[in-house]
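User: Show me a protein chain along with its predicted structure.
Assistant: Here is one chain, sequence first, then structure tokens.
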Amino acid sequence: MRIGSKHERFVVSIDPATARDLDDALSCEPLGGGNYRVGVHIADVSAFVPFGSALDEEARKRATSVYLVQKVIPMLPRKLCEEHCSLNTLGDKLAFTVEWTMDSRGRILKEWMGQTVIRNQCKMAYENAQDIIDNKFDPSCLDLSHLPPSRHRWAIDKIKDAVHGLWTIAANIRQARFDRGALSLNQAKMYFDFENNDTNTAPKGWHLHETAEANWLVEEFMVMANARVTEKTIEFCPDNALARWHESPDTSRFKTLVDSLAKKGEEMKVSSGKALADSLERLRGHKEGAT
């Protein structure tokens, strides 16, 4: 049975500014006592793509949407990707939801998973969420035209509370992962700028995009939801479960780098993920070109 939570949860999405197919959203509500109710909501595409249908067969052939510099070749028809299956602010949407009661450190106290009906109250760009985290948020940059003017102040307060709550939890979860030896290899991404993203014009320039706290916020909760759903799938449907497994890195591939650094008097430890992370963090502080 699909649970309706469109009026019970204040749901927001955080995506690149130019995103059209919004496939995930978040909700966060303080419960008092330092606890929160946090929801990860994923668009329920399966409700529109019956198993074995012609649409399903075509999607299998395409396997994924292809993102080019100036356009996207979607796996599914645009009407589905950008409207019916997109968690935009234009009405009720079908979703799969993972919802937790958790403390500010991200420790799960209670968990629920199931099909829901949600309503996205605000489509945010990463930059909007980052401004809230940095306490320099300008509410006028948000599109709240889908809400009556009398609800704008209420919505802005709810948005700020949700982002601050999510960031508090995500920051603690992230730090705990690093304390356990997680490795971060984030690199700046190059993006091309166009006069009009809807036309195949030549780019007018480019810029580098650095991953910021708002990106990590979304990433932490998506990874947690994926992990928990995978664990439940393996527990209850082991014959149909498919989990992605990452092999341990081949330390022999580090030999050239390790030897080069050793000649410069630097030690690179690769015995474990934590050892490598600590070495990279130590080297990060060196001046560019020094090593």
